[in-house]
Design goal:
One of its GO terms (molecular function) is growth factor activity. InterPro entries: Cystine-knot_cytokine, Spaetzle, Spz/Toll_ligand-like. Keywords: Disulfide bond, Glycoprotein, Signal. It comes from Portunus trituberculatus (Swimming crab). One of its GO terms (cellular component) is extracellular space. This protein is of the alpha+beta class and about 240 residues long. It has 2 domains: about 50 residues, no CATH class; about 150 residues, Cystine-knot cytokines (Cystine Knot Cytokines, subunit B, Ribbon), CATH 2.10.90.10. About 20% of the residues lie in helices and about 25% in strands. It is built from 3 helices and 9 strands, in the order αβαββββββββα. The strands form 3 sheets. It has a 5-stranded antiparallel beta sheet with strand order 1-3-4-8-9. The radius of gyration is 21 Å and the shape is elongated. The chain binds 2-acetamido-2-deoxy-beta-D-glucopyranose. 2-acetamido-2-deoxy-beta-D-glucopyranose binds next to loops.
């Protein structure tokens, strides 16, 4: 608990000293311990067969660059989060190779999601006085290389890939509770409060090595978006 209070203090102190417009703590992928992630669905919502659709165009020979991807990528071992920001096995060459044949279609898909990058779209209070944050959180702008989609599958996300002298990037703002599940620090104990991780859905252009006809598509991912303080029903009776 002492460590957490220290974190709260540091967050406040950092924000105050920078005269910044909002509280932003840049965190690396492993900056703090594994909070349990409750914000992505544990269950698979769709039948398996909707995913396994490889032989749609059996007359196209499978190109040599498609290789078997494990269900859980190696980079997952290096992070506690359902996404990877670093990946020594990122199939950059395969993506670039596949892009040569699909550039125009992929650029169309990319244009559809590029505007949705959340890097610049979040309004935050101008000063700390405008809003009291009840639960400590860390905010970062991330460019995931892989992530778990809303069907619970790891996907390769097209990021930092060059095509036609353009670099395709996909950025998402993530805000994570530092003490999810704990009581809100500033709320008296008798109120029965809990810090609750909330998430929103993002659409990303992904690379699917198994779809050899068009190995690019847009899929949906739930990422942490804010940290709320939830008061128990008992409190609301008062
Ligand atoms: C995981 O981290 C180790 C140590 O930093 C690194 O050597 C390895 O390449 C990483 N694995 C992946 C898949 O990125």
């Amino acid at each position: 608990m002492a460590a957490r209070l220290l974190v709260v203090f540091l967050v406040t102190a950092t924000a105050a000293s920078e005269h910044s417009s909002h509280v932003v703590v840049s965190v690396g992928t492993e900056a703090y311990g594994a909070a349990p992630y409750s914000y992505y669905p544990q269950s698979v919502y769709y039948p398996q067969h909707s995913y396994a659709h490889q032989p749609v165009y059996p007359h196209h020979p499978q190109p040599a660059y498609a290789h078997h991807e494990p269900a859980v990528p190696a980079c997952a071992a290096n992070t506690t989060k359902p996404w990877c920001l670093e990946d020594s096995e990122y199939p950059l060459y395969e993506i670039q190779h596949a892009l040569q044949y699909n550039a125009h279609h992929v650029l169309d898909l990319y244009a559809d999601v590029a505007d949705l990058n959340t890097a610049l779209s979040v309004e935050r209070p101008k000063t700390l006085d405008e809003e009291t944050y009840l639960c400590p959180s860390a905010t970062a702008y991330v460019r995931p290389l892989r992530a778990i989609n809303t069907e619970g599958k790891w996907r390769v996300i097209v990021n930092n890939v060059e095509v036609h002298y353009q670099t395709l990037t996909q950025t998402a703002r993530v805000e994570e509770c530092l003490t999810a599940g704990d009581a809100c620090p500033l709320v008296p104990e008798c109120y029965g409060s809990t810090c609750l991780q909330k998430s929103i859905y993002h659409r990303f252009l992904v690379y699917d090595p198994y779809d050899y006809y068009l190995p690019f598509s847009i899929e949906t991912f739930a990422l942490p978006s804010s940290c709320a303080c939830l008061l128990s029903a008992y409190t609301l009776d008062h």
